[in-house]
Structures are given as C-alpha cells and as structure tokens.
Specification:
- 0% of the residues lie in helices and 50% in strands.
- The chain has no helices and ten strands.
- It has strands at 3-7, 10-13, 18-25, 34-39, 46-51, 57-59, 67-72, 77-82, 91-97, 108-113.
- The protein has a six-stranded mixed sheet with strand order 2-10-9-4-5-6, with no helix packed on it. The chain has a four-stranded antiparallel sheet with strand order 1-3-8-7, with no helix packed on it.
- It is globular and about 40 Å long.
C-alpha cells in the first residue's frame, strides 16, 4: 500500500526559506513522475514542481527561480527547497505521483507572513 508523508512546513516570514520532505512506502520515487502540489484556502490543488523518472524538472511559473525539487534515491525521499518565500506561497503542500495520484497524505502547512 502506498503511503506518502510530508514534513518540514512551518510559519515563516516573507523572504525566508523552508525545505519540505516527502517519504514514501510502497514504491520508489525514481521510477515515477513525482510532484509537489499545494492547496491554498478556497483554491484548487495545483502542481508547483515536478521531476520525471529521467530527472526532467518543471516548475509552475509562480515558483520558478525560487523553488527546487530534488530526489534522494538512497533514502527514497523527495525534497522541495523553497527560498524567498512569499505570502502567496501560503498553503498546504503535498507530494504525490504527477500522473496517477495515490491516496493523498496529510500534507504539511506552510504559512508565510509579512
């Protein structure tokens, strides 16, 4: 059974950085297209970063140049380094397969204040 667990969120000020982590049981990250998603209050969940099984990376325009997605194959952990955070980055962040999402985890809350 696939289980995804996100961590690393918190309350920070605009301009600060956070690194989110995603661990999984039941599959190996590097075999799939993986993504970081976020959902802000009252908005739909959106994909913010994706890494393919071949290492290809894409970012949403809103986070390009500020966020970096990586996968540590040795520890089967995916990260999202978030720099220069903005108030509009406030959301619950989730990790999942991009193309065939599995049951969603709890997510990790990121709150950015002025």
């Amino acid at each position: 059974q696939v289980q995804l667990v996100e961590s690393g969120g918190g309350l920070v000020q605009a301009g600060d950085s956070l690194r989110l982590s995603c661990t999984a049981s039941g599959f190996t990250f590097s075999n799939y297209y993986m993504g970081w998603f976020r959902q802000a209050p009252g908005k739909e969940r959106e994909l913010v970063a994706r890494i393919s099984s071949g290492g290809g990376i894409r970012y949403a325009d809103s986070v390009k140049g500020r966020f970096t997605i990586t996968v540590d194959d040795d520890h089967n952990t995916m990260y999202l380094q978030m720099n220069n955070l903005k108030v509009e980055d406030t959301a619950v962040y989730f990790c999942n397969l991009e193309l065939n999402p599995q049951p969603w985890g709890q997510g990790t809350q990121v709150t950015v204040s002025l």
